[in-house]
Amino acid sequence: MIDKRFRRALDALHDVPDGATILVSGFGEAGNPTELIHALIEQGARDLTVVNNNAGNGEIGLALLLKEQRVRKIVCSFPRGSHSHVFDELYRAGRIELELVPQGTLAERIRAAGAGIPAFYTPTGVGTEIARGKETRSFGGRDYLLETALSADFALIKAERADRWGNLLYNKAARNFAPVMAAAAKVTIVQARHVLEPGDLDPETIVTPSIFVDRIVHVPDPVRESDHLAALDKARPA
Amino acid sequence: MIDKRFRRALDALHDVPDGATILVSGFGEAGNPTELIHALIEQGARDLTVVNNNAGNGEIGLALLLKEQRVRKIVCSFPRGSHSHVFDELYRAGRIELELVPQGTLAERIRAAGAGIPAFYTPTGVGTEIARGKETRSFGGRDYLLETALSADFALIKAERADRWGNLLYNKAARNFAPVMAAAAKVTIVQARHVLEPGDLDPETIVTPSIFVDRIVHVPDPVRESDHLAALDKARPA
Amino acid sequence: MTGWNREEIAARAALDIPDGAYVNLGIGQPERVADLMPAGREIILHSENGILGMGASPAPGETDMELINAGKKPVTLVPGGAFFHHADSFAMIRGGHIDVCILGAFEVTCSGDIANWSSGGNAAPAVGGAMDLVAGAREVRVIMSHQTASGRPKLVEALTLPATGLGVVKRIYTELAVLDPARGGFRLVELAPGVDLPMLERATGASILAG
Amino acid sequence: MTGWNREEIAARAALDIPDGAYVNLGIGQPERVADLMPAGREIILHSENGILGMGASPAPGETDMELINAGKKPVTLVPGGAFFHHADSFAMIRGGHIDVCILGAFEVTCSGDIANWSSGGNAAPAVGGAMDLVAGAREVRVIMSHQTASGRPKLVEALTLPATGLGVVKRIYTELAVLDPARGGFRLVELAPGVDLPMLERATGASILAG
Lengths: 238, 238, 211, 211
Description:
The complex is a heterotetramer, with two copies of chain A and two copies of chain C.
Chain A: E1 5-6, H1 9-12, E2 21-24, H2 34-43, E3 48-51, H3 62-67, E4 71-76, H4 85-92, E5 97-100, H5 103-115, E6 119-122, E7 136-139, E8 142-148, E9 152-163, E10 168-169, H6 178-184, E11 185-196, E12 215-218, H7 225-235
Parallel strand pairs in A: 1-12, 2-3, 2-9, 3-4, 4-5, 9-11, 11-12
Antiparallel strand pairs in A: 6-8, 7-8, 9-10
Chain C: H1 6-15, E1 22-25, E2 44-47, E3 51-54, E4 77-83, H2 86-94, E5 100-103, E6 107-109, E7 114-115, H3 130-136, E8 139-143, E9 155-156, E10 169-173, E11 177-182, E12 185-191, H4 197-203, E13 208-209
Parallel strand pairs in C: 1-2, 1-5, 5-8, 6-9, 8-10, 12-13
Antiparallel strand pairs in C: 2-3, 3-4, 6-7, 10-11, 11-12
Helix pairs in contact in C: 2-3
């Protein structure tokens, strides 16, 4: 029988080693696997490379992982935010490495890793600082950059519904990077609001088929980052 | 107002020129836009390059287009079939050009065209005749072939449900190449069993978003290829 | 009152979008365009984070933080909208399927060069989807303030900041005017109320080509 | 009766699939494996045309020609199955997500080389998904007849037909035996009932390494 469920997030993360590369789903507040990241903080792995579109908000989830100085390097497209003070301070102090990747190139590099494509050409970034050190090549009279697949040891993602096999559905714009990240990691760990049995999800509507998922943790009532940020703003000295 | 509906298939195909490259959805019998192909036969364009997984069955749809000698070249992964006699004869007589592409490379080349990726590397076909004339390059100690995007002037695809904007759902394994083909052509023409209004399809379940679709023809009761093949077998001299 | 306010600039940009267009809205000022769609047109808004058919801001108390725009602010979905993942979203952008994108900018040149991702200095750069958009959208337009807070022109002859893309911007909307990058200067399309040509010329770091 | 019949070969191959495996079935003989799954295991079958969770053949009168396998024959879907498009399907294959694939073959060598797409001559070649599968699946197994219709060995030292992939096949199931390509010959795993070693050696175009 296939049962990918783990009772506790900490158990699902037991084998994350120091130095691991971890894909983390989410865009802004939507789709962040906050409970899995908090379990990762508890678990203790350090010297991590984290891939996420942003660099954390407030002092929760990814921002908290950064604050605990567990991240050596972050790969992202948009680290700036109204509540990105943890990253901002680490970056200014030179205590975290930043690999800035255009958002579409980031998504495509992750997708390529999951699809067995080691490298591809893209028009994005030609003639800019992003092109520095990258091969430029012309196809049909236009220049493109060579970009390589971005794979990882683990992916931590958030889903709306999962079945025991690992089929996944998402909620609205919380889908974002999760489907490509699920396919690109050696071990994909999901926190899902609802966990069901195989056959409960319509096979026409499944977004992430079970083949891409390794471990499932049921988190029925995940924290709302916006509540945390509102509380943070309120507590902030005027 | 956005209304991509055409009352007749022939009208939706009015501007297909001689020499056009056309992507045609379908795998075996599932997902073939047979009524659109029959309209293309009536429309008269010739000297076509057709991209499909197969090379037609019986004397219907793509096989009939071939029989009418309207196709100069076919790009496919698997032209052989129990009912591929039209293609077989043309091929043996040297009257049709064949570009044989491994199925995953075919899907990925079409996907790349729709995604603005001019070329990518793949492990498929390394060390085989398929690699002949292609650049081989090593990444991480493994060899890969460079493959280029496969775009087209038109895509003819079959869907189960469409709305007026062009959002599409498919039926089971009839989905196959249609979503990637819809994105890879300058003009994408869909035949759909059901045509609805925007908002009738659940936004979480839409497979092909409307941005990839240009023209919609309502074909409520498409021909069943298996009926045609059964009749053909029955009529065949013993 | 001289010039357009932020809402009027966004409404002016919205007015130029044809019926049936697929339009991406970037972060910042362009986000407002979603609330100012001209009546009688079906325009389909794309948001890089996986939304087609993005609608206006939600009514107070109806916000859903899993339905947000590129600027991470709550939005709505119109009937006919769809959700998809990030690789599919940027396939739409990079693949040339977006008719118009409207971006914010730090600087734009009369050659159509744009800088909007790095302000130099030691603050972290943030490129987001901007480089993909300028490389992939069929037409790139910009909504921006005409000058910096300290009064330096942002419409210039040559970029002083790192480029996002070169020769890509086709139209610019500011509080003072609508302008098109053109050979040797910015071609004036429309002046905002109360703005005259000398005023516009003083605020601009390149020639204004009128008429 | 000597050797296994077609059904028994497929059942023997099915027996080697561990619980929880994701398995792709190729065209021809491997298709039968779907009907012969060992009881008590959850094995998830992948079909290249966009199916995960492919089930057995449908009951007569319940065929749906929009639910077919790689060989274009009607199948079913098990609870927990999913449909997806071709690029996603081959992302599963090429991306190394398939644990086992079972292919048919014209020839296999004791080095694990396989030929199954072109029989030479003037018949059209047909590669399908075979080259993607041998490049991407974690383990490649083959179900094939031991000899051609005219009695020529198909398990050989070197390919005479164009290669599909080199050094990829790990196990072969024929009507005579289960064999693993090994340095210098085929290692015998199991003999079919009524088959002895000399018989197997006569039918094979390379050494048999027994024990």
